[in-house]
């Protein structure tokens, strides 16, 4: 069993540091001529997988856009994940689950265990305490999967929690980053526990004392493309940790669909731009 971090490093080396989102929201479905129903989101997701397999490091289906269609939408997500697995395309299931005890164990079974909803990695929220993630971290490690932990997001509301300072004098985001670093200690080329760090958070990384290079895990960076992160933003936020960055772009790529050629061309352009911005 090859660990997630090693698999991801190989895909990034081959295709560039881009994770293409699969976000079938109503506006994109309409633009693609698809109905806003379970069949539409399934067609959307499977089209993206077919077009981008072998062209990007990974894809990130946003679970919410499938779940809003109930059980048929969840079944559509399962089929998208299965298609990606069959095509050898890594998937990060963007579910942002977070809970405690046996409930978190249930989420672990669903998204990193032997379940049709399990991709190669999942996003989780640590804001019930990093220790609450233990069921996901342990089961992911046992199955060679990865975990991306929300750390420093660019939405304005996030600062009230992530920038808050705990009794030990550390910002919450810094404590999350250091806990992830402990999980990845000694891993090469990097570990399986990554962070979600917005590409547009500006000086917050430095101001809060985060050492992203020391995390030694992949840094999933939303905000590239339509959300406006520039080369200067990427340099400021990630600095010496640039080799760990996995830029996430959804609208920039998906707006070029529904043709396979359009999606591939947009993905290649975005990956090239990210690589240049990171000076890789």
UniProtKB/TrEMBL annotation:
PROSITE patterns: OMPDECASE. Pathway: Pyrimidine metabolism; UMP biosynthesis via de novo pathway; UMP from orotate: step 2/2. It is an enzyme of class 4 (lyase). GO terms for biological process: 'de novo' pyrimidine nucleobase biosynthetic process; 'de novo' UMP biosynthetic process. GO terms for molecular function: orotidine-5'-phosphate decarboxylase activity. The active site is at residue 96. It holds the Pfam family OMPdecase. Its EC number is 4.1.1.23. Keywords: Decarboxylase, Lyase, Pyrimidine biosynthesis. It catalyses: orotidine 5'-phosphate + H(+) = UMP + CO2. Residues 17-266 form the Orotidine 5'-phosphate decarboxylase domain. CDD domains: OMP_decarboxylase_like. The keyword Lyase applies. Belongs to the OMP decarboxylase family. Type 2 subfamily. HAMAP family: OMPdecase_type2. This is Orotidine 5'-phosphate decarboxylase. It comes from Kineococcus aurantiacus.
């Amino acid at each position: 069993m090859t660990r997630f971090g090693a698999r991801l490093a190989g895909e990034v080396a081959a295709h560039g540091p881009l994770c293409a989102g699969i976000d079938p929201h109503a506006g994109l479905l309409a633009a693609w001529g698809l109905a806003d129903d379970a069949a539409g989101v399934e067609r959307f997701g499977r089209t993206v997988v077919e077009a981008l397999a072998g062209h990007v490091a990974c894809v990130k289906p946003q679970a919410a856009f499938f779940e809003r269609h109930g059980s048929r939408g969840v079944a559509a997500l399962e089929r998208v994940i299965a298609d990606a697995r069959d095509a050898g395309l890594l998937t990060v299931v963007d579910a942002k689950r977070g809970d405690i005890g046996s409930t978190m164990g249930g989420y672990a079974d669903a998204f990193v265990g032997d379940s049709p909803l399990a991709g190669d990695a999942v996003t989780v929220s640590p804001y019930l305490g990093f220790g609450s993630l233990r069921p996901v971290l342990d089961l992911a490690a046992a199955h060679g999967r990865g975990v991306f932990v929300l750390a420093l997001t660019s939405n304005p509301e996030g600062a009230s929690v992530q920038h808050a300072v705990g009794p030990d004098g550390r910002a919450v985001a810094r404590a999350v980053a250091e806990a992830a670093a402990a999980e990845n200690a000694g891993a090469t080329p990097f570990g399986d526990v990554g962070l979600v760090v917005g590409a547009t958070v500006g000086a917050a990384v430095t101001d809060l004392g985060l050492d992203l290079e020391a995390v030694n895990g992949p840094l999933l960076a939303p905000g590239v493309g339509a959300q406006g992160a520039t080369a200067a933003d990427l340099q400021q936020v990630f600095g010496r940790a640039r080799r760990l960055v996995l830029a996430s772009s959804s609208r920039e790529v998906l707006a070029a669909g529904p043709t396979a050629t359009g999606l591939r061309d947009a993905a290649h352009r975005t990956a090239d731009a990210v690589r240049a911005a990171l000076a890789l």
